[in-house]
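Example 3.2
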Amino acid sequence: MRVLLTSVGYKPAWNIGGPVHTVVALAEGLARRGHEVWVATTDSNLTERLAVDTEAWHDLDGVRVRYFRMQESCTKRIPLDYFRKSNADYRAPDFARWLRKAPRFDVVHSHLAFAYANRVAAAWCRERKGPFVYQQHGVFDPVRMRHRALKKRLAFALWERRACESAAALIALTEYEAETYRALGLSGRVEVIPNGVDLPGSPPQPQGARASSRAQLRAQLLEKMPDLRDEEVVVLFLGRLHPTKGVDVAVEAFLRLDEPTARLVVAGPDEFGLREGLERRAREAGARVLFLGSVSGGLKSALLHRADLFVLPTVSEGFSIALLEALAHGCPVLTTEGAHFPEIEREGAGLVLPLKADSFASAVGDLVRHKERRGARGESARRLVADRYTWEHIVDRFEHLYKELT
């Protein structure tokens, strides 16, 4: 099959978050199976631009990728924070011009609601009578739709509804997300296919290589945390610093925690300017909280390997890649109902808590004090991912769907 994926970003645009990880894993997984995979994306990396050639196609691990130059939304020039802090819709006029002359694709799959490419690709598929697949990545959750609600309601009425109604299949990450399509009055076919993750250490490496790899990861971590001690319990928050992600709750929980061996590490891009205030509050309280900013590659892997607990006090998630990565590394997870991942608690891999700092402080304190409980939950976490959420399982499901639609 020849497949076109449209996305707001592609590697190395990791600051954008989960959707980029999803598109990269899906594209490379399909390419390894012999499919011809094209990715049309933008040069955005959330708060910055990628230093890439936006005029050429790139061959990245068997995938043809074009980073179309993003044109910033005119609303960014309005001198109000409501607009300045609002992401553009990743408008890339060159993508529309290229698509008019593009070769035929067996399937076109667009990622992330309200992206400019969605309406362009949907119109192209209507004209060519080819199957169009639409994936919202949690954006239609009523909680998230209330954020900049007027702008989203207008965009949905003016063009996003038409794109969704053009889809041969609407992709939901969870059953809850499937319901959010219905709540918007969309009656088309919905397929529930979650995100996936690669298990660390697969394929297995020789014993010497594993030891060398662990030493390299530890060295990278010690560059950022030179005072890190082996006996410390590292509690990790990994994600964008965004109001819906709950980083403020994680910090507030740590301010109420009286566990001298515990340290909170906050890693992720400061999308909404939250870091300065939270860092100052932690410093004034004398809390052991470290902000690392954006992390990727070896440093991110080192953090996940070293973390003893993972916290995500989220208001709303589609299906968090960061949670999956933590579980895959055998790290117990503390999150909320907003993660829409009840299996975490049901399978003993962590706890689903109320969105309150006191609740997180109490749960963190209990697991910091009881190493054996952390160990048991960590084993359950890795087993949960291995059984249900590896990328091999997920790519199987997309491949089957695409073949059915063609």
